[in-house]
């Protein structure tokens, strides 16, 4: 089979045998694929630093008819996330993006919107040296692109319009709920956090200036989006816990 070529984002890698790596990547024209990078664990190898988490690369691979994994022949770095990848705190932010992308993207399905979203958010973590706003934006847009975003203006149970106060959610039920319909254990999403969601809908991440006064609503909106991702993927996310230690 002839080699194929695509622009790609490396999602995750893990060791295979003594010398190789399995690489999960999101190809712009191939969708999410998994492949083997032979020799990638050797000290001197032709992949260099191209297989780091969320690296933006050009990748060449060969499909093998009978196997699930493609063979990765070559990868070249298109732009660097060196600062974020080599910093523990920032790399946990990249790991959250990677885990969510793995969870929500079906294999072999092209998603230009998710490709651009991941690229934008990873670059902003690198550029600003902070994951707080980029991760909120990423999680919110993942929910929106997935079609899982509840109504932000009225209660999912009784249909009452929200005022400026908190609405409530959890990872067990779809929707946002009013104070009367909230169940025990539900978390609040304040009016400011819902207003931030409006901004995310209309403005590009790299045009939103982040200051620390936004932190509370940025955190709240991110937590709500994580809950809706978990609800729809029917899986718990494991990497957000690491953020607290970063
Ligand atoms: Zn209600």
Descriptive account of the structure:
This protein has about 250 residues and is of the alpha+beta class. It folds into 2 domains: about 5-80, Nucleic acid-binding proteins (OB fold (Dihydrolipoamide Acetyltransferase, E2P), Beta Barrel), CATH 2.40.50; about 85-245, Recombination protein O, C-terminal domain (de novo design (two linked rop proteins)). Helices cover about 35% and strands about 20% of the residues. It has 7 helices and 7 strands; from the N terminus they run E-E-E-E-E-H-H-H-H-E-E-H-H-H. The chain has helices at about 80-85, 90-105, 110-130, 130-145, 190-200, 215-235, 240-245, and strands at about 5-15, 20-25, 30-35, 55-60, 70-80, 165-170, 185-190. A hairpin with a 3-residue loop joins strand 1 and strand 2 (about 20-25). The mean pLDDT is about 95. The structure holds zinc ion (ZN). Zinc ion binds next to loops.
CATH superfamily of the largest domain: Recombination protein O, C-terminal domain
Mean pLDDT: 95
Bound molecules: zinc ion
Overall morphology: elongated
Strand order of the largest sheet: 1-2-3-5-4
CATH topology of the largest domain: de novo design (two linked rop proteins)
Elements, N to C (H/E) = EEEEEHHHHEEHHH
Using only C-alpha atoms, the radius of gyration works out to: 20 Å
Q: In what range is the share of β-strand residues?
A: 15-25%
Alpha-carbon distance between the two ends: 44 Å
